[in-house]
Amino acid sequence: MTTTAFDLPGYRIAASLGVVRGVVVRSRSVFGTLGATLQTVLGGNISLFTELAERTRAQAFDTMLHQAHLSGANAVIGVRYDANELMQGVTEVLCYGTAVRVEHA
């Protein structure tokens, strides 16, 4: 279970296991950049970058969940994303939250 809130209705937090995170650093390929440049000329959604962003966020989320599982958690609360450009064309995406063990209230 995951939530952006700091509690889960119907559950109580039995143990807080600390911050867990998933970090992914991605660069755009030359071909992807060329394709996206063509899409910008036409206007609208730049689907090549949208797909890259979605895949990157999903990978960061999955890595965070794996870290939570390794810590013994059965839920992550306060889930957040952050992104930073490390250098031109290279972006870091971070997904983080607090790993907890919850029980039915």
What does this structure look like?
The protein has 105 residues and is α+β, with helices and mostly antiparallel strands. Helix content is 35%, strand content 43%. The protein is built from two helices and three strands. It has helices at 30-42, 47-70; strands at residues 11-27, 75-87, 90-104. A hairpin with a 2-residue loop joins strand 2 (75-87) and strand 3 (90-104). The chain is elongated. The model has no long low-confidence stretch (mean pLDDT 87). InterPro entries: UPF0145_dom_sf, UPF0145_YbjQ-like. This is UPF0145 protein HKW67_20240. Belongs to the UPF0145 family.
Report a brief summary of the structure:
This is UPF0145 protein HKW67_20240. Pfam families: YbjQ_1 (PF01906). This protein has 105 residues and is α+β, with helices and mostly antiparallel strands.
CA-to-CA gap between the ends?
A: 15 Å
What is the ordering of alpha helices and beta strands? EHHEE
Percent in strands? 35-45%
Mean pLDDT: 87
Main beta-sheet strand count, sense and barrel state: 3 strands, antiparallel
Number of domains: 1
Percent in helix:
25-40%
Using DSSP, what is the number of strands? 3
Strand order of the largest sheet: 1-3-2
- What structural class do helix, strand and pairing data support? alpha+beta
CATH topology call: Translation Initiation Factor IF3
The radius of gyration computed from the alpha-carbon positions, rounded to a whole number of angstroms, is 17 Å
Globally, the shape reads: elongated
Count of helical regions: 2
Low-confidence stretches: none
CATH architecture, please? 2-Layer Sandwich
Specify the CATH class.
Alpha Beta
Assigned CATH superfamily: Hypothetical protein apc22750. Chain B
